[in-house]
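FORM 12-B: Structure-to-Sequence Request
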């Protein structure tokens, strides 16, 4: 595990998603992999059946980040979405909307609330 981000070799940050069982954090599927050194970007994620209030079938979710940065062992970003098309997320990213501030570091677990679908906890796993 490396906490030093070296811009010459590292281009991505990998943030693990954990669920809490009792006092333990258990690694779940679906790492978040974000580009380092990019302030604004979008990504697309496959959504399983019955994990979205707007559409019970499998489909894609489009999210975006702005003001993303990695500094002193902490990755921070403002998240927008999910939306159901690239056009919609591009539009939101280009608006003045602030987004939801999220962060992750190497030692703590940042709670990410998914409403009825529970809470995931985020922690940086590696830079690569
Ligand atoms: Zn959806």
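FORM 12-B RESPONSE
SEQUENCE OUT:
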């Amino acid at each position: 595990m490396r906490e030093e981000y070296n811009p010459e070799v590292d281009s991505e940050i990998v943030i693990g998603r954990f669920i809490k069982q009792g006092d333990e954090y258990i690694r779940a599927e679906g790492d978040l992999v974000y580009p380092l050194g990019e302030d604004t970007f979008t990504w697309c994620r496959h959504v399983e059946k019955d994990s979205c209030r707007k559409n019970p079938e499998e489909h894609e979710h489009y999210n975006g980040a702005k003001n993303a940065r990695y500094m002193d062992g902490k990755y921070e970003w403002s998240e927008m979405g999910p939306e159901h098309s690239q056009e919609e997320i591009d539009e939101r990213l280009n608006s003045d909307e602030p987004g939801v501030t999220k962060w992750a570091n190497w030692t703590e677990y940042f709670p990410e609330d998914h409403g009825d679908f529970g809470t995931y906890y985020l922690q940086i796993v590696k830079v690569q």
